[in-house]
Amino acid sequence: MAIDYSIDVERGLVRATALGELNLPDSLLHVRQVFADARFRPGMDALFDLSLSSAREYTVAELRRLVGALERQSWALRSGARWAIVAGCDLDFGMSRVFEGLSAHLPIEIAVFRCREEAQAWIDSRAGAGSADSEGP
Fold it and tell me: What CATH number is given to the structural domain containing 94?
């Protein structure tokens, strides 16, 4: 599995695309790489696209470990940042919603979408509750 990412410094946005089977070790590596990238700034928004991958290998315990890793990197998380996850199938949507729930105490907003355009619109909206569809948060 690979996670490709780019950082748009002007927009304050990390865009990541997962390819193949998503798993915990690769996700943890991705977090470390992004947070170590010289272009990264605390509080950046993120759009994580799972539509070309699958998270079927993930367990709830592993999602908790991923949230724990984010907690340990709290310097990078700032209130007001929005992280959107785009899920391509029902299983990934459901697991991403579990991750969203487990992350509720973090100072970032996380929302799950089925469409990249809706996810980007939510990130860009910054007004109130966002523009998630009825299956969003």
Answer: 3.30.750.24
Is residue 96 situated within a structural domain? yes
Note the pLDDT tens digit of each residue in 54-76: 888 889 999 999 999 999 998 89
Q: Say which residue the tokens 């860009």 belong to.
A: 124
How far, in Å, CA of 121 to CA of 92, rounded?
A: 20
Q: What is the largest CA-CA distance in the chain?
A: 37
Question: Could you tell me which residues come within 8 angstroms of residue 120 by beta carbon, excluding any fewer than 6 positions away?
Answer: 47, 84
The single-letter DSSP state of residue 92 is H
Residue 62 token pair: 């592993």
Residue 137 in any domain: the answer is no
pTM of the model as a whole: 0.88
Euclidean distance between CA atoms 51 and 129, whole angstroms: 24
